[in-house]
Amino acid sequence: MEDSMERAIDSRADWQAAVLELIDAAQSRLLILDTDLAESGLESPQGIDCLTAFLQRAARPDAIRVLLRDGDRLAHHSPRLMTLLSRFGHRIDIKCVAEGQTPPDTSFCIADSQLLIRFHHERPRGKRLAPGGQAGAVCEAQFETLWPGAMPGPTGAPLGL
């Protein structure tokens, strides 16, 4: 697929495939805004392999930043992602939207300057957009606005009790 092309997403399977394609193409950073990552496909073995490969090639210390509406599902029902987080916790930062913050209704992934967006976080319809568009800048601004006030999310670190 050419980077300059836009592509419609019409199903959950299309969304999951597009998320993995986007991460495969990423070189330095990944920003994700999602409800709980349940429909992202990242908990699958392919998703873990894709994230691991990205973390190994990305030079940024904060290669992956994730902002969730709810971190409970990740912490309690995503053992593969939590294992990855325990291995690469120094490169992955996860936060949860704080009470009183109003996240956008969309869910999105930004890899470098490429945007993959779901028009509403409860529906699978979305689009992969060409890099450099205004939609990518708007989504990134929304992410960066919510990030400082968000609460720490799951870390993958053992409690040591």
TrEMBL record:
Q: Where is the DUF7931 domain?
A: 13-152
Q: Source organism's superkingdom?
A: Bacteria
Please give the InterPro entries that the UniProt record associates with this protein: DUF7931
**Protein's recorded name:** DUF7931 domain-containing protein
Source species taxonomy:
Bacteria, Pseudomonadati, Pseudomonadota, Betaproteobacteria, Rhodocyclales
